UniProtKB/TrEMBL annotation:
Family, as annotated: Belongs to the PPR family. PCMP-H subfamily.
Residue ranges of domain DYW in the record: 137-228
Segments forming a coiled coil: none
Organism listed in the record: Opuntia streptacantha (Prickly pear cactus)
Designated name of the protein: DYW domain-containing protein
Amino acid sequence: VDLLARAGHLAKAYDLIEEMEVEPDFVVWGALLAGCRMYKNVELAEISARKLFELDPSDCGYYVLLSNMYADAGRWEDVERIRILMKNHGLAKPPGFSLVEVKGRVHVFLVGDKEHPQYEKIYEYLEKIYMKLQEVGYVPDNSSVFHDVNEEEKEIILRTHSEKLAVAFGIMNTAPGTSIHVIKNLRVCADCHSVIKLIAMIVEREIVVRDSKRFHHFKNGICSCGDY
């Protein structure tokens, strides 16, 4: 199922699940849901999510992922429906944060963080990086912003996601060639994934990000996850 979903053969993956002689568990449905997220198949994502809600109703990650897909599709009424469903189940999406260790000290960043002593320098560095990103063809993935705001506001929000702040800080405060290691408590968004790939290529660094699902090892503009 995972292989078929990764390759984009979502209907075949679903058919395989339906043909299983044993009851599919959360790993199987989770693999299909991840594929639906990658290939933006909302219809199958809804089926997968419903099964996952039944198997593990206490895991807010499935609710959030489906909500994010609805937001990506501009289905804001469904986003609100999932929010209410989570509230009724006593679930709440934890605030996203990223950790990076530099010179033996752990630094924590939130989205739009302005509490860090170096935040002004970090923002200035990111501005310079974004100019270089645009030169190599980067286009912001505004679908990674799950708020009903205009496109300009989405780009502003995207630029200060916690993992970008952590990566920038790590690069600024380590010697050239030093690898950067970041831990993110939630799944890395699609835009941050694309940006960090390009940053790794531009600054010629290896960047490792451990999010809630897997390790992402960025090197030379490529990620070990195969963009899955």
